[in-house]
Amino acid sequence: MSRPTLEQVASRAGVSRATVSRVVNGSTTVAESIREAVHRAVAELGYVPNLAARSLVTQRTDSIALLLPETTTRVFSDDQFFPGVIRGVSQELEAADKQLVLMLLGSAAAHERAKRYATGGHVDGVLFASMHGADPLPEMLASHGVPVVCSGRPLSRSTVPYVDVDHEAGVVAAIEHLLSSGRRRIATIAGPQDMVAGIARLDAYRQVLGASDRRSIVAVGDFTRESGEAAMRQLLADDPRLDAVFVASDLMAHGALRALREAGRRVPADVAVVGFDDIELARYTDPPLTTVRQPIEEIGHTLARLLLRLLGGEPVEAVVLPTELVIRHST
């Protein structure tokens, strides 16, 4: 059987083709009785709108792109940040009857392809997460009229709205907790210094220690378990007497715990460990990990809400979500 047409729906409902088109495309200017007649005819005939034709009328695709400038290995590792953000975005868009398009920008070619796709009218708006460096793509898309919202404060001047967490308050709470428990030589494993999360957490660590007249002891990782393990070995070599370490992600903290165990250091008796994220893994490390909780899934929800408001023509501002110290046995 051929698929029902607008003309057939119009005939069944006793209205014009133009009226059916307005009802199907969500117009609120049609009388309620006529809308009911059209919807009844749509249901009886099993009419399914032609999305390509509908897009020509509405100038909307009902699709939103989530761009992650990461490799597939990084996104689909056991770091639960990305699944949490994707889940939050997806739930919000599903409630708004929007389609999520996930694009990984792990190469220059993928980056260029995403730019062509977004500026080519294939999506109504773009969300960015896990930004590295001063990536010009968000600002470029916005200058082409594409609604854009980013996760994380930009590293350069930008007019693009963003969602971030209060890194500074979380780190201050973590370091003050270590200081109040009597720790004196507090090191850190910082995140990558081309990302706002890595930079902000290291800056806050240095400020708190500087205010307490203690020196910084720093190694840098890339938010992976392996980098945390390697950085912990480096810190132990640099200062064997360190008695605490603040780690800028839970996954790196897991690696640090492994390195401490291999070095014969007891946690927390010899070295206290604090992470950042509060992913599920933090509850099951040995010992369970004290960490700074950031609302990962809420980041995704908030990103999508801001973009939907932009699509609706509303003004939006940056949102900074709170963090919270969760104390467990590693301190």
TrEMBL record:
Keywords: DNA-binding, Transcription, Transcription regulation. SMART domains: HTH_LACI (SM00354). Residues 4-58 form the HTH lacI-type domain. InterPro entries: Cro/C1-type_HTH (IPR001387), HTH_LacI (IPR000843), LacI/GalR-like_sensor (IPR046335), Lambda_DNA-bd_dom_sf (IPR010982), Peripla_BP_I (IPR028082). It comes from Phytoactinopolyspora mesophila. The keyword Hydrolase does not apply. Pfam families: LacI, Peripla_BP_3. GO terms for molecular function: DNA-binding transcription factor activity; transcription cis-regulatory region binding. The keyword NADP does not apply. Residues 5-28 form the HTH cro/C1-type domain. This is LacI family DNA-binding transcriptional regulator.
